[in-house]
Amino acid sequence: MAEQLLEQARDIFEGQIDFEGQKLVELLVNISLSLVGAIAFLVGYFLQDIKLAVYIGLAGTAATFLLTVPPWPIYNKNPVKWLPVAGAAPPTNIVIDEKMLR
């Protein structure tokens, strides 16, 4: 029972995104945090309210977090097709701490 719950949680949190998804996430983070920072600064400046500016910045950062951190399916539209393993033999004669592993 506990093992099944742990496996489900692992599947949810592990998530996979491809290289194009990583590039998209980086672009979204840069744009959204820049916009949020500029908006928070301008609102705080014109209203002379630092507390409101900080809240706007925190809310925008939280929204950016929710937009980019979970592995949404949009970030895995171009998965990498890995080559199959062909005749790979396990390594032999490995020495770790002066002990031979077989």
TrEMBL record:
Topology of the protein relative to the lipid bilayer: Multi-pass membrane protein
Q: Give the signal sequence positions.
A: none
Q: Source organism's superkingdom? A: Eukaryota
Arranged from A to Z, the UniProt key words for this protein are: Endoplasmic reticulum, Membrane, Transmembrane, Transmembrane helix
- Which compartments is it annotated to reside in? Endoplasmic reticulum membrane
This entry carries the following GO cellular component terms, namely: signal peptidase complex
Asked if the keyword Transmembrane belongs to this entry, the reply reads yes
Q: Which GO terms describe its biological process?
A: protein targeting to ER; signal peptide processing
InterPro entries, per database record: Spc1/SPCS1 (IPR009542)
User: What are the TM regions of this chain, as residue ranges?
Assistant: 27-47, 54-75
Concerning Pfam families, the annotation shows: SPC12 (PF06645)
Q: Report the protein's function.
A: Component of the signal peptidase complex (SPC) which catalyzes the cleavage of N-terminal signal sequences from nascent proteins as they are translocated into the lumen of the endoplasmic reticulum. Dispensable for SPC enzymatic activity.
State the family it belongs to. Answer: Belongs to the SPCS1 family.
Which named protein is this? Answer: Signal peptidase complex subunit 1
Q: Which organism is it from?
A: Triangularia setosa
